[in-house]
Amino acid sequence: MKNILYLSLIFIGQIINAQDKTNITGVVYTDEIATNGVVVKIIGTSKTTITDSLGTYKFENLASGNYKIQVSYIGKKTIQKTISLAENQNFVQDFYLEDDDNSLDEVVVTGTLKAVRRSESPVPVETYSPVFFKKNPTSNIFEALQNVNGVRPQLNCNICNTGDIHINGLEGPYTLVLIDGMPIVSGLSTVYGLSGIPNSLLERIEVVKGPASSLYGSEAVGGLINIITKNPKSAPAFSADGFTTRWGEANLDLGFKANVGKTASVLIGTNYFNYDNPIDNNGDNFTDVTLQERISVFQKWNFNRKSNKLFSLAGRYFYEDRWGGEMQWNKGFRGGDEVYGESIYTERYELLGAYELPIEEKMLLSFSYTDHDQNSVYGNTKYLAQQKIGFTQLTWDKKIKNHDLLFGTAIRYNFYNDNTPATLTNDENWIPSLFIQDEIKFNEKHTVLLGARYDYNDNHGSIFTPRFAYKFKATDNDIIRLNAGTGFRIVNLFTEEHAALTGSRDVIVLEDLKPEQSYNVNLNYLKKIYTGNGNFIGIETSAWYTYFTNSIIPDYDTNPNQIIYKNLNGFAVTKGISTNVDMTFQNGLKFILGATYMDVSKTEDDIKTRQMLTEKFSGTWAISYRLPKLFLDIDYTGNVYGPMRLPLLGALDPRQEYSPTWSIQNIQFTFNKLKNFEIYMGIKNLLNWTPNKGNPFIIARANDPFDKNVQYDPSGNVMVTPDNPYGLTFDPGYVYGPNQGIRSFFGLRYTLK
Asked: Which CATH fold topology does 228-752 show?
């Protein structure tokens, strides 16, 4: 009995003593869910812990005083808080982490086809989350990319408003666009494929600048954009986002998820956009903005497997009806020569999936299929085209000591047919591929990546693309990356160059076009600065040099009535330097700034010429300020572009040969006091800039779009007449920026987690 009493007294004494200890405990929440694996550290000490399965952290046996706690988690904003700890106090402090709109250390997959932290990737990858794009809401991803440094959405037609994505001065066909790592957007869909992807399904967008052909094959010459959709398991239960503008545009995104028993979860997203209000502010009797109606439905399934291995399936249906032209045009004039209009019906189906094999080795089977139908008229010129792309890829991820190996094989099926002289018969081919990648980690500071890919094309034979990367991690906050490699691109003119279809220029193809080859080197430096008062500064700078052989650049200069295509008898070069700065302050102020300087040129017969539609410099910014007491967020976004050389129709053309320096700026106010709701409003294009300013007109011969009154001399050259004093033909290809002026917008978001 005495022994029991003695042990009890010891136990009670231990409890009393434990209560006297000074501790800090709490729970970390992400998306209102207690989360394990969150890193919690006391700055200035060696004390670091990770939250457990209940999201709990604990620091024990601390002395009284002030402590700065830092909490960090992938894809969330790192936060810091100072705690004043009294003696014998058990202090409870919970943390709620918010989404990071431009995290510098989140998981990325695009650079190496593997999920790694951004700081650990030998290939520089930029990431952008939905929070970033919400700063300037748009109806499609094409427009959303306007605030990404070094990435420029380029309009190619004043009437149909088709466009492509320029990366580091290279045109859209040099950029590969992926959805969940699958080459969904290519060929015909490079023009329209970035429309109609529901923003409610967007997890993040990853951008790689520079060749990636050693992993992804053709088209990944200038860079690639990977649109990654949400995982149904982590997506909100329901989301809705709708906005309208003073011009009459209306956009609605809906998303919801559901569990199908214990076997699967499904995510469904829908996008609807409508604009049916013809506006002609520049007075040329042509619509300033293409009228559109489109609907897109996306569905993604994740299946639960006993082995926890991945199995997902996704599909998308997209339909769009768009037209632009003379203000009096209607569908009764479609395809005729009375009233000019450009009308495009697009219908496409997409299927993609990923299945991790049920074996011990990490092997992933990925597949996709797209069917794209386009029925379009450009005035009285019909363009009917169909494209089918099938893709299957098997990768084997294997680690051997300090070697992180990736073996892969892929096969791609291309079918293309249109009614142009370029396609007298169906263009059908199979492209098998083999690739290997070895990431060698010598130590914490030095990593080398070696890669190579072999492709075989029925029309062009064997193509080999090697790759090299080196990463030097001086500290966790100082990283240098060197990347070098080659790229190739196989061209289909009419699927990529819609300037060949609109206007009255004749398209001339002088020879059988050979694949373009590129040689690239890129140097990247990342610096992260954490200040003592909890502020953060991230600086990332890249310098690049790309050399092209067999380059195929549309020639607008030789003959103003023609667009000439041939392999360049010389070489083309793009080089430049780009810097991104990300600054976050504890007072609620955040800056995301970007600037790029570049030189894009071609050299033929020893004559160097600046390429069309390439700017010397550009800049982007997103400045945000949070007023927590007012439940208000303010976002000021914008871009600026230097002069670009533009396609003129001859020496008498009165339009400017170079565009002016121009800028699109926007402001938005977001009110978030109501639970699950966000109310936002603002103004787009604050400066009311449009490209017609400083020009007598934008569309040449807008008064005679079928060239019925144009006269030609015996050599086929346009004659100067009283009705045609500048000797022009109809041409809407003089375009470098949007025609849409200032407008207000209002929107509402609802998210149920």
From this structure: Maltoporin; Chain A (2.40.170)
Rounded distance, CA 427 to CA 491, Å? 12
On the question of pLDDT at 297 being above 90, the answer is yes
CATH superfamily for 2-97 is Immunoglobulins (2.60.40.10)
**pLDDT tens-digit map of 400-411:** 999 999 999 999
With contact defined as beta carbons under 8 Å apart, do 137 and 745 qualify?
A: yes
Contact 339, 375 (CB under 8 A): no
Domains of the chain by residue range: 2-97, 228-752
pLDDT tens, 632-672? Answer: 999 999 999 999 999 888 889 999 999 999 999 999 999 98
The DSSP line for 689-708 is --TTTTSS-SSBTTT-TT-T
C-alpha separations of 521 from 137, 220, 461, 545 in Å: 35, 15, 26, 5
**Rounded CA gap, 691 and 694, in Å?**
8
- Measuring CA to CA, how many Å separate 172 from each of 152, 189, 430? 9, 11, 23
Residue 12 is predicted with a pLDDT of 43
Residues 348 and 386 sit within 8 Å (Cβ to Cβ): no
Residues 6 or more apart from 611 whose CB is under 8 A from it?
Answer: 169, 553, 572, 600, 601, 602, 645
Q: What is the pLDDT of residues 417-445, one digit of tens each?
A: 887 766 667 778 888 999 999 999 999 89
Nearest to 40 by CA among 49, 30, 53, 31: 49
